[in-house]
Specification:
The complex is a heterodimer of chains A (819) and B (350). By secondary structure, chain A is α+β, with helices and mostly antiparallel strands. Chain A has four domains: 191 residues, no CATH class; 338 residues, Roll (C8orf32 fold), CATH 3.10.620.30; 140 residues, no CATH class; 36 residues. Helix content of chain A is 47%, strand content 13%. In chain A, the strands form six sheets. Chain A has a six-stranded antiparallel beta sheet, with no helix packed on it. Chain A has a five-stranded antiparallel beta sheet with strand order 8-2-15-18-19. Chain A has a four-stranded antiparallel beta sheet with strand order 5-10-11-7, with no helix packed on it. In chain A, strand 13, helix 15 and strand 14 form a beta-alpha-beta unit. Chain A starts with a helix and ends with a helix. With 350 residues, chain B is α/β, with parallel strands linked by helices. Chain B has two domains: 209 residues, Rossmann fold (3-Layer(aba) Sandwich); 99 residues, Helicase, Ruva Protein, domain 3, CATH 1.10.8.80. Helix content of chain B is 42%, strand content 15%. Chain B contains 13 helices and 14 strands. In chain B, the strands form five sheets. In chain B, strands 4-7-10-2-11 form a five-stranded parallel beta sheet. Chain B has a three-stranded mixed beta sheet with strand order 1-9-8. In chain B, strands 3-12 form a two-stranded parallel ribbon. In chain B, strand 5 and strand 6 form a beta hairpin. In chain B, helix 9 packs parallel to helix 11. The radius of gyration of chain B is 22 Å and the shape is globular. The relative contact order of chain B is 0.15. At the A-B interface, helix 19, helix 21 and helix 24 of A face helix 11 and helix 13 of B.
Chain lengths: 819, 350
């Protein structure tokens, strides 16, 4: 088989291998069958075109034709002539499939079933990649370039999944690419003839090339760079690397009840939100036309790690629940309602969701208790999965005007004391003080803080943001302005507490999708967290600071309107929540923006507001480091120069000169008695001269004597220059320092070096001069030699070590089997 | 065995200035006859001052004999000339004991070598037997005849000429004998201007006959003493050894230079340095001398001969490869070559 044909087949196979990551997207394997068929057709067309000695463009046309025919055959839907030849209708069908694919992408959650549109797009993609790979690898003989289209396939599942993926399909893809590279290289080497060790026998394909050690070095360096570079890029810390070790509940979500009703709700929440796919969790029916969120948990304690829930305490559920919520029903409009709840097996927690504030619960056994302070149903041992119950509750409608009348609580009040405690974080304090300045009542203060989390202030929703509600995490969130409900709720609660007002974080479900018979289905997408603020006389009032556009089934309220709405809802203008305003009900595939879509969260650039984010510092540091690295050779050079000058000065001052008056070569010179110092000085001057020559790209030959070097320097670089005599002096000084019993006096050497350097620089052209100044080759050369020598020594030692290993492994080499 | 000593002791070295003046006078004197060959003349003088022997090898008619004679005439000392022919006998060279009837004893009649300067013309025409008669006196500065050893005077120098082209009826000098000549030089053709000037100079008579001596034997001995006192740095000695060792290790040479050549190389380098007005030897001196001093002692391999590589070319290439010494130990700071030669990939066999 000739090498190009072989390589073409390998390119096709590599394309199929490289599309392995698509398996993460589809539930079935139809895509592989169809895509593989298309790739095979494309590859076959390319082989045929090549065997007819078609040029590259002819091969390309053949492949495109094969792709078209293949797509027509598989997806033509009877629009084609003989099922293979496309007609205009076929293209219309393709267009329809394309549009269909767009819809399917919006509607479906991965892994998707075999949907026509998506299958069409994946087959088209694989075929296109096959064409590109073939052109790169076989046509242009640049198989490394073929990695780029293959990488495009990689990016598909990575873009779809927010969380981590199995690495196996990626490894399969990489193997395909490596296969392609290896095949090409073997061909390339074979074109030169048989590989040969030098021992008189040929080298088998399996055996490492004599150049393999160089290849291994390159590979090690490449892998190191590939690992080190993303660490240096700040955005990646929020990506998959940031997930390592944080253990924010991905692996723990929905693992059943845990102990005594205390659950890491934040972990649960972020885990469920990031979870792939949609699971129905709760079905609820209520006679309340306009309900608010269902609650099942509260975090009102602040520890070192941020907000945490505490051990609930209370009585077993009964028909008549205590109402310690502090709500004075006399002054607030309220509505009594009843709700029926059915929990699916997907919601398994020691907590049950209820609307605030329940007054009676029916249908639960005695394992369930009610904490009146937290207003939650909990159990020490029972699990919420598959429970069904009924409860009465009272929903209060507050108006801003009413809330403004809430008195500021005394510091001794237990709620005030307990729920406004917060660790002091100066950044938060500064921001809060700025926001609440001039506000006279608690409601206005809370509103000022609540309004701060708006798109105007560049807050964005991002489910991939780092989890955590500690003080540092809050500060990070306030700086980055990217987060999901957990961060919004915790940050608002933290800020409200900082303002001295009791606040806590509530967990529950947003409204969910409503079907015709009035049953609302709540899924993991409806899981949510929000802030509750305590107003004296009103109790706990919910504020949902998360941008409502990103919350499936969010419900803005009169007292906490959507801050990003086009116009502010005037306080108290609407007596009640209108059903239309809360039509955020969105089930799976609803029109609302999917919170799992990372694109929704990162839309728009992050702007710098109060403080420069860390990446600016990292980038600045990187630039500074780079500059420092760049000027290091120049610095080293000038240090060397200065040190040599110093040596000259010492020698010149320390020497006791005796004017012996030896006349040599028309240069009258003094001869020194302090010979060692004078020798050192002459050497320093000479080294400087040599380095200057290297810097200015003048050849330096170690087989040349100082005298000859200087004469060559004069003839090549210093024609008719005033520095000729100075250069000769330097050569003479070095010669005498090396070989004569008595060296020359040192005092005239430093100016001579300076003069010669100026003369050399004057004769050199600008580029050479600039290089000599900024990137002195002498320093680089020395470093390179040092590095090379070090590396050679090291690799020699390693080779000696690995020699032992090789002897041990020799019997196992595959090459032995082939010989 | 008796030893008869002749000649003077080497004492009283000159100052640098005096040395230069004297040698310049000799060179100028010789140049009245040989024009445009300063370097050759100085080299010949250097060999004399280095107490060595000179082999002048060139085509006929370029002034080999003239140079030898001019050098001899410039020095007021005894000069003998031997025209080597196939029938020349060893006793003609060294001398012979003849029976003296009056004294009734054998009397030594000194041969041609008993002179300060011996000019051996066409040395390769004599039989090897006669050539080898020169061996002892050249190296050991003594002649042994009938068990009596006669020491030669200082200075003692053999200037031999030979013709490389006309090989018919010649006995090429054996390696052993070639090794005893300190330097081999070629005269080379004069340039056009020198040749033109020569026509005028030789127009009416031979200027060689007008040549008068400028120094006497005692002065030459003082010059030699001065040369002996020239300083040789350790680095230069090392370089000389490295240079000679390199000829032994060169892949193109079948036979490298002998240890004797190291000695003579350094001695001649001292003379060259002194002629240059220095009281110390520099590697440049060794570099200039590498070809004249070493080239006639080495034998190229058959491959190199087939490739028409002359020993001169091989040696000058060698000189250009060898790093010059410095007194700082270790590698030269600007030696940009790796410390250990990079491993050839083909050396790493698995």
């Amino acid at each position: 088989m000739n090498s190009r044909r072989h390589l073409g087949l390998v390119a096709g196979a590599a394309t199929v291998l490289a599309s392995a990551p698509i398996s993460d997207i589809f539930a079935g394997w139809t895509w592989l069958f169809e895509g593989g068929l298309i790739v095979a057709m494309v590859t076959g067309a390319a082989l045929g075109a090549r065997s007819l000695r078609g040029r590259l463009w002819a091969q390309l046309l053949a492949m495109l034709g094969a792709l078209l025919i293949g797509l027509t055959w598989l997806f033509g839907n009877g629009t084609a002539i003989l099922g293979l030849i496309p007609t205009p209708d076929t293209f219309a069908e393709f267009g329809r499939l394309f549009a269909l694919a767009g819809e399917e992408v919006q509607k479906s959650y991965v892994p998707v079933p075999d949907l026509d549109g998506l299958l069409f797009v994946s087959a088209l993609g694989m075929g296109s990649v096959a064409i590109l790979v073939d052109v790169c690898a076989v046509g242009l003989r640049r198989p490394a370039l073929a990695g780029l289209p293959m990488l495009a396939i990689y990016s598909v599942p990575v873009a779809v999944y927010v969380d981590s993926l199995s690495p196996i399909p990626f490894i399969v893809g990489a193997i395909g690419f490596l296969w392609l590279l290896v095949s090409d290289n073997v061909d390339r080497v074979r074109r030169f003839g048989r590989r040969f060790t030098g021992e008189g026998r040929g080298v088998d394909v399996w055996e490492p090339s004599p150049l393999a050690s160089a290849g291994r070095r390159l590979a090690v360096v490449g892998v190191l760079v590939a690992v080190a570079l993303p660490l240096a890029v700040p955005a990646m810390s929020a990506g998959f690397l940031g997930d390592f070790g944080s253990g924010d509940g991905l692996g723990q979500a929905g693992k059943g009840p845990r102990g005594n009703g205390r659950v890491d709700l934040f972990a649960e929440l972020s885990g469920r939100l990031k979870q792939a796919g949609v699971q129905d969790m709760v079905k609820v029916t209520t006679n309340d036309p306009d309900p608010f969120y269902m609650r099942f948990g509260v975090a009102d304690q602040i520890s070192g790690g941020g907000f945490a829930s505490r051990q609930p305490t209370g009585q077993p559920v009964s028909d008549n629940l205590p109402d310690p919520s502090g709500l004075d029903l006399g002054s607030v409009r309220s509505q009594a309602a009843t709700a029926r709840v059915e929990i699916t097996e997907n919601f398994a927690m020691p907590l049950l969701p209820v609307y605030a504030a329940p007054t009676a619960v029916r249908g639960l056994d005695a394992a369930w208790s009610y904490d009146p302070s937290l207003q939650i149903l909990y159990s020490q041992r029972a699990n919420s999965a598959e429970q069904s119950y009924e409860f009465d509750y009272v929903r209060a409608d507050f108006t801003p005007d009413q809330l403004r009348t809430a008195p500021i609580m005394a510091a001794s009040d237990s709620n005030q004391r307990e729920f406004s405690r917060v660790p002091e974080v100066s950044e938060v304090r500064t921001l809060v003080d700025k926001l609440v300045e001039g506000k006279t009542n608690n409601y206005d203060r809370v509103r000022a803080l609540y309004d701060y989390f708006s798109a105007k202030n560049d807050f964005r929703y991002d489910v991939a943001a780092p989890a955590g509600t500690s003080g540092a995490a809050i500060v990070d969130f306030l700086n980055n302005k990217r987060g999901f409900c957990e961060q919004y709720a915790a940050a608002l609660a933290w800020m409200v507490r900082t303002a001295g007002i009791p606040a806590r974080v509530a967990f529950g479900f947003t409204l969910g999708s409503s079907s015709d018979n009035g049953v609302r289905t709540l899924t993991n997408r409806n899981l949510h967290a929000w802030t509750e603020v305590y107003f004296s006389g009103f109790g706990w009032v919910p504020f949902d600071a998360t941008p409502s556009t990103y919350v499936v089934g969010s419900a803005p309220t009169a007292w906490a309107p959507d801050v990003d709405a086009p116009e502010e809802v005037p306080g108290g203008a609407r007596p009640s929540l209108s059903p239309g305003a809360t039509d955020g009900s969105a089930g799976p595939g609803g029109p609302t923006r999917d919170p799992i879509d990372p694109d929704g969260g990162v839309a728009g650039p992050i702007t710098l507001d109060n403080e420069l984010p860390t990446w600016v510092w990292v980038a600045t540091g990187g630039v500074v480091l780079l500059l420092a690295l760049l000027i290091t050779p120049a610095l080293r050079r000038s240090m060397l120069r200065r040190r040599r000058g110093m040596r000259a000065a010492v020698a010149a001052s320390g020497g006791d000169f005796a004017d012996v008056g030896v006349s040599v070569a028309d240069l009258t010179m003094t001869v020194v008695t302090d010979t060692d110092a004078a020798r050192r000085q002459a050497h320093a001057a000479w080294d400087e001269l040599i380095d200057t020559m290297i810097d200015h790209r003048l050849v330096v030959d170690p087989a040349e004597t100082p005298r000859a070097t200087v004469e060559r320097l004069i003839s090549t670089a210093l024609p008719a220059s005033a520095a000729v005599e100075q250069a000769r002096l330097l050569g003479m000084a070095e010669e005498r320092a090396r070989y004569a019993p008595v060296p020359l006096a040192a005092d005239r050497l430093t100016p001579a070096v300076r003069a010669v350097r100026r003369a050399i620089a004057g004769e050199a052209d600008r580029g050479v001069r600039l290089t000599a100044m900024l990137m002195p080759p002498s320093v680089l050369l020395r470093w390179r030699n040092a590095a090379f020598n070090g590396f050679t020594t090291l690799s020699d030692r390693l080779a000696r070590l690995s020699g032992v290993g090789k002897r041990l492994l020799r019997p196992l080499r595959p090459g032995r089997l082939l010989r | 065995m008796t030893t008869q000593r002749s000649g003077g002791e080497l004492t009283d070295p000159m100052t640098v200035d005096e040395f230069r003046a004297t040698t310049n006078a000799i060179v100028a004197n010789i140049e009245q006859v040989i024009e445009g060959k300063t370097a050759t003349v100085r080299l010949a003088l250097a060999v004399l001052l280095a107490e060595g022997h000179l082999l002048i090898e060139d085509v006929p008619g370029v002034g080999k004999t003239k140079l030898a004679k001019a050098l001899a005439r410039s020095i007021d000392c005894s000069v003998r000339r031997i025209q080597f022919t196939p029938d020349l006998l060893p006793s003609d060279v060294t001398g012979v004991s003849v029976y003296n009837q009056e004294t009734r004893d054998f009397e030594f009649k000194p041969g041609a070598v008993f002179a300060n300067l011996v000019v051996g013309d066409e040395i390769n025409r004599a039989s090897p037997k006669t050539q080898s008669a020169l061996l002892e006196c050249m190296e050991e500065h003594q002649v042994t005849v009938d068990g009596v050893t006669y020491t030669m005077e200082i200075p003692f120098m053999v200037v031999a000429t030979q013709n490389p082209i006309e090989m018919e009826g010649t006995y090429p000098l054996p390696e052993a004998q070639r090794d005893r000549f300190t330097a081999r030089i070629a005269m080379g053709y004069p340039d056009a201007a020198a040749e033109y000037a020569m026509l005028d100079g030789y127009h009416s008579h031979d200027p060689l006959e007008d040549l008068t001596s400028v120094v006497d034997g005692g002065t030459v001995r003082r010059l030699i003493a001065t040369v002996r006192s020239v300083h040789v740095a350790e680095a230069v000695k090392r370089y000389a050894v490295e240079l000679v060792t390199a000829t032994r290790e060169a892949p193109e040479l079948r036979l490298g230079a002998s240890p004797r050549s190291t000695l003579q190389l350094l001695r001649t380098a001292k003379a060259v340095a002194a002629l240059d007005g220095r009281d110390y030897v520099v590697p440049d001196d060794l570099q200039t001398l590498a070809v004249p001093v070493l080239a006639h002692r080495v034998i190229p391999t058959a491959d190199a001969q087939l490739a028409r590589r002359t020993t001169d070319a091989i040696l000058s290439e060698l000189v250009h490869r060898l790093p010059v010494p410095h007194d700082r130990g270790g590698r030269s700071p600007y030696d940009t070559r790796p410390a250990t030669p990079p491993n050839s990939f083909y050396d790493r066999r698995g």
